[in-house]
Design brief:
By secondary structure, the protein is an alpha/beta fold. The protein is built from 15 helices and 16 strands. It folds into 3 domains: about 90 residues, no CATH class; about 350 residues, Rossmann fold, CATH 3.40.50; about 40 residues, no CATH class. It is about 40% helix and about 10% strand. The strands form 5 sheets. A 7-stranded mixed β-sheet has the order 4-1-2-5-3-6-7. Strands 8-10-14 form a 3-stranded parallel β-sheet, with helices on one face. The protein starts with a helix and ends with a helix. The N terminus and C terminus are likely disordered.
């Protein structure tokens, strides 16, 4: 009964959304026009109910609601929507389930680093055929010394012993439609990161490495196997998402998940990837550094050491391209060229974690000219490697991780939010699948065909300095706790405001006024 009530809730919510513009026009029209509009609206309602009822009887996928038209007045609108949705759940507990519940893997041979069982958190949505699997991030370790230290300081990233029974997440994992307008009603799975291997390993514990297991890739495989018994076998879409190390895990495993489903007779499931804060071009650091831990070891050296230590399973096509230098397949631009599955890349243009890895100091003394030049070159390299990616969201901000922020809907690139861009990408893939009748590599490379008017999904800021996007998250001074404006960021980095303004074709005052309007 609950599934049916939920379905009618969605129908009524959609009708409210569609009827909102008509309400405004009724207020401006006379009584005769009001009657005509009411009659038309009743006919539309009957048609909508008939269509949706028929689709549900045929087992069609439940649909996400499109709240884009009311994004600017979302708060009051969504309070009404939420109250209505909850009031319609007469045979439920009168509220949407907020928590994801822990399930430890039945296959006890697939474990975390310390041998404790790996697992996942699940929030089911019985009426939906959309599944969102999210890979947690959290750095890595690459030898016994760094893993021992990690086990002492970040044990929950190496063991399931102290995992809570439930989790409540935000952003794209939120069940609240006002925070997550397109994926709020999907079956949502959070897979904790406890393998410390960028989700790449398939190796049980060995005596020569301190008896740590590195089984990130196997954990994903086993989670998918268990979810097939919980409804994933009937899915239409599986979106594999992740942030930071989890984002790299998406790149390394998305094709493998698609192949796993196909080999088990579930080739109709459309598998897609959504990596966040994982797009790092391959380059040497600003200055050389010792590999004392994950944050001080340069990415290239970490990739070389990790590939051997974790006994990583990397995409086969990428490995064949880089024989003898297989470690290069830990870098997203290299992996991307070998992928078949559609990918949407989310990436801050000035990623804080990546700058730390490349030995760019973000605190203390102002930037030197050499540091700024290095960061600018990295920004240009990031742009160049993302130019031909079909679907991107790249704000020019200094941050790390976007998908799970509670305010992820607030960030815009060229006026479009990330949830909206993902919705446009989804529509494009659905149209492509309808035309082509397949789920291959279409949608991966950037198409010459423009997206639907007003529905873009290849979005990258045009300005080329940190925090130049007015919607960027605020930066705070560590010493004072006060917010730092974008103009102050420029000065801290040693940039000449006059010269920067000239490069952008404006005077210095205009530039400073623009930056003071947001971005900090």
């Amino acid at each position: 009964m609950m599934g049916g009530v939920a379905g009618w809730s969605s129908i009524l919510l959609l009708l409210i959304h569609l009827g909102a513009p008509l309400e405004a026009r009724r207020a401006a029209a006379g009584r005769a026009q009001t009657r005509r509009i009411q009659q038309q609206q009743q006919q539309q309602q009957q048609q909508q109910m008939s269509v949706v009822t028929r689709e549900r009887l045929e087992g069609a996928e439940s649909f996400p609601l499109d709240f884009t038209a009311v994004e600017d007045n979302m708060d009051s609108f969504m309070v009404q929507i939420k109250n209505l949705a909850q009031s319609l759940y007469k045979c439920s507990s009168q509220k949407l389930d907020q928590d994801m519940k822990l399930h430890l893997l039945r296959n006890v041979s697939v474990t975390c680093n310390d041998g404790s069982p790996a697992g996942y958190y699940l929030r089911e949505s019985k009426g939906s055929k959309r599944w969102l699997l999210y890979l947690e991030g959290g750095w890595y370790c690459f030898n016994k010394q760094t893993c021992d230290r990690r086990y002492e300081t970040m044990r929950s990233l190496m063991s399931s012993a102290d995992w809570p029974q439930t989790r409540t997440e935000s952003g794209i994992l939120s069940p609240q439609p006002e925070q997550n307008p397109y994926w709020w009603n999907a079956n949502t799975v959070f897979i904790p990161y406890c393998s410390s291997d960028n989700w790449s390993g398939a190796s049980p514990p060995r005596a020569d490495d301190g008896e740590y297991a590195f089984m990130g890739s196997l954990i994903i495989r086993e989670v998918v196997n268990e979810l097939l018994t919980k409804g994933l076998d009937k899915a239409k879409v599986l979106l594999l998402a992740g942030s930071s190390a989890g984002g790299l895990g998406v790149m390394l495993n998305v094709d493998r998940v698609a192949e796993q489903l196909l080999s088990q007779g579930h080739g109709g499931v459309q598998v897609r990837g959504l990596p966040d804060s994982a797009w790092l071009p391959m380059r040497k650091p600003h200055k050389s550094a010792d590999c004392r831990d994950a944050t001080s070891c340069p990415p290239i050296e970490t990739a070389k050491r990790g590939y051997r230590y974790w006994r990583s399973v990397l995409p086969e096509t990428c490995i064949q391209t880089h024989l003898g230098e297989e470690w290069k397949c830990f870098f997203a631009p290299k992996i991307y060229l070998s992928l078949k599955s559609p990918i949407f890349v989310v990436q801050w243009l000035f990623d804080e974690a990546q700058l730390i890895l490349l030995n760019i100091n973000l605190t203390g003394r102002p930037f030197t000219e050499g540091q700024w030049r290095f960061m600018h070159n990295l920004e240009q390299q990031t742009r160049a490697t993302l130019r031909d990616v079909a679907a991107t969201f790249v704000p020019a901000c200094m941050e790390h991780i976007l998908l799970t922020r509670a305010n992820w809907i607030d960030f815009r690139v060229k006026g479009t939010s990330l949830p909206r861009a993902l919705h446009c990408w989804d529509r494009s893939l659905q149209e492509s699948n309808h035309i082509n009748g397949s789920h291959g590599s279409h949608g991966r490379r950037r198409s010459r065909t423009p997206p639907t008017r007003g529905c873009p999904f290849h979005l990258m800021d045009g300005c080329s300095w940190p925090q130049c996007n007015p919607t960027c998250p605020a930066i705070y001074d560590e010493a004072t706790g006060q917010e730092v404006s974008a103009a102050q960021v420029l000065r801290y980095m040693g940039l000449d405001v006059q010269q920067t303004a000239r490069q952008q074709g404006m005077d210095a005052r205009t530039l400073l006024e623009m930056l003071s309007g947001g971005g900090g």
